[in-house]
Amino acid sequence: MKGYSQIWYDNLAHAGCSFLNEKKLGTYSAEIHSGGKMHIAVCDDEKVYTDLVLKFIRNCIADYEDEISEIDMETFSSGEQLVEACSQGKKFDLIFLDIKMTGMNGFEAARFIRGYDDKTIIIFITSLVDYVFGSFEFKPFWYLIKPVTEEKFKHVFLKALGEIKNDRNRKYSFFTRENGLENIEINKIMYLESLLRRIIIYTSTNQFTYYASITAEEEKLKKYDFIRIHKSYLVNMLYIQRINKNNVVLKNGVVLPLSEHRFKLVFDSFTSYLARCSI
After folding, report:
1. Rounded distance, CA 73 to CA 77, Å?
2. How far apart are CA 241 and CA 115, in angstroms?
3. CATH of domain 2-168
4. pTM of the model
């Protein structure tokens, strides 16, 4: 979440790679050497602006073809289309999102996306400078004011790619008897459970078991915003939905016990984490 503290706004100084065949929604492919395919969405109800963003990205990829490849890109002409795709399991690393759209606006779409995904980088694009100050709750990475110059767009786009690359390169390593050395992207770890001298790592799709002390694992992971909520549980704050008096509810509905004597520390740490993510 470090990236979300790096919010920039275009034009505020004045105020104080070739692609594959185009599909119906505008799908292209190109590759960034950051450990897997990247997925980008562009959402604007004015085709001239989605075409402009695609053009800028196309030019940027051509300029940096040695560093960038394998990007899947989709365009959406409404907030409803974007939200529908996300509700069906589509995940994007980066979203360029217009704010003022007919029907569901960009803020409403961003609110839905942030309800289940704190990691997606959102870059708002709009013609209205006043909307800058109403966007903080959606944790934008950047804010571009129309008309967007190609120079400014390239600057923002490359920063976003670098942020995604750095995030993907954060790995957690441990040794299991079954598979030997394992490596997991840290942001995919939801929580760790200590059980009979073993550690069980839970992701949204898998579990990994190995022998270790949860206190030792806590020391390794606390710098990545993991918090000890119980003698047996270490949780990634990225996945916390809410904190109750006796438990912590994760965004996937899992409920974990919260020790009474840890409540204040957990609550204060999570509050601080949310504040840092919203700066």
Report:
1. 14
2. 9
3. 3.40.50.2300
4. 0.57
Alpha carbon 167 to chain centroid, angstroms? 9
Q: How many CB atoms lie within 10 A of CB 223?
A: 7
Name which CATH class applies to 171-278. Answer: mainly beta
Q: Per-residue pLDDT tens for 136-177? A: 667 788 888 889 999 999 989 988 888 887 777 778 888 888
Contact between 148 and 132 under an 8 Å Cβ cutoff? The reply is: no
Matching residue, tokens 């598979």: 179
In sequence order, the 6+-apart residues with CB closer than 8 A to the CB of 249 are: 240, 241, 242, 243, 255
First to last CA, the chain: 11
Q: How far is CA 58 from CA 41, 63, 73, 173, 217, in A?
A: 14, 9, 11, 36, 43
Strands (E), the chain: 8-9, 28-32, 38-43, 68-76, 94-98, 121-126, 142-145, 171-176, 180-185, 191-195, 198-202, 207-211, 226-230, 233-236, 240-243, 247-250, 255-257
With both helix axes pointing from N to C terminus, report the angle between 150-168 and 47-63 in degrees, rounded to the nearest 10. Answer: 70
| DSSP at 149 | P
pLDDT digits 0-9 by tens, 51-75? 999 999 988 888 876 666 678 889 9
